Amino acid sequence: MFSFESLRNAFASNIVRTTTKPNLPPPTTHNAASPPINLMRGWPNPSLLPADLIREAANKALSDTTIATAGLLYGPDPGYEPCREAIATWLTDFYRSADNAAPVTASRLCITGGASQNLGSMLAVYSDPSYTRNIWIVAPAYMLAFRIFEDAGFGEKMKGIPEDDKGIDLAALRRGLEKSEEEARRRKGSERPVYKPERKRAKVYKHVLYCVPTFSNPSSRTMSLQHRTELVRIAREYDVLLIADDVYDFLQWPADASADGSFDAAMRTAYLPRLVDIDRDLEGGADRPDADGFGNACANGSFSKIVGPGVRVGWVEGTDKFTYGPPAAPPRT
After folding, report:
1. Start and end of every Aminotransferase class I/classII large domain (predicted)?
2. Nearest to 82 by CA among 103, 54, 56, 111
3. Could you give phi then psi for residue 3, rounded to 5 degrees?
4. Which of 53-67, 250-264, 285-299 has the lowest mean pLDDT?
5. Rounded distance, CA 303 to CA 330, Å?
6. For the chain, how big is the Rg over CA atoms in Å?
7. Angle at 87 between CA 82 and CA 91, to 5 degrees
8. What is the DSSP letter of 297?
9. What global pTM score does this model have?
10. 3.30.70.3040, 3.40.640.10, 3.40.50.450, 3.50.50.60: which CATH number matches 112-323?
């Protein structure tokens, strides 16, 4: 299988190649046969697509029966274990490189069909269109997320929270949450989920908040550390599931290359912790007193932004309990 190191190096070399070309004069003639470049679609330059690496990885994996057989059978529900372990190591290097940071483990990860598909899957498990008060969306927001919320039954329950210069207007969010809770207290039938049975493997959150904390789409803003920390505290206070589309975090590079002309050093480590990291580390995390173990934040990741848009494979990170439910009870003897 190809390594994440080889992918990152290929991506970095392409950035250097495409950003260090000298400024060329405009062409003197226009080729009418050449179609215009559509910048609205956000498609990468085809030269960035690692077809050779994917072909090499596929050939290597499918030629090894110990990998091919396990990979093509049903396998474990959270996903192919060696893949989850490799992703965990990669995420640890990028997000948890501090000496005192607990590493990302495979048990905190579940393989998904990409960030958009997994957004719908998480709503199916962790929300109830009758009990869950609102879907809070940091605006402006990724346009395709709205249809996913509508399909989950929240067409009339979506609420926008504006960005501020630090990424989210926390005062507006708190006012909205308090008003929503007041309305729920006056409304009969909102005390417990209606469409989801009580399950030990999952819970239903009162609120869901969707955001893109780093390089937000479409504003490109990055939420500050102070706002990220306070957002986690608010989520705990009001029983909010924070769904963070952490799909752009790896697409970072400085304005200027380092002395050796590379961007590699700046791409090795995240500048800010994710919401899921803060929720894990802050004041005892999901194991603090009175917490239920599911946590209040998850990181929705995807290879589509760092390998190719057609690679519809991703992962979600949360607490062990969030990604796969609590451990099964031992059989009775």
Report:
1. 57-320
2. 111
3. -95, 155
4. 250-264
5. 36
6. 22
7. 150
8. E
9. 0.85
10. 3.40.640.10
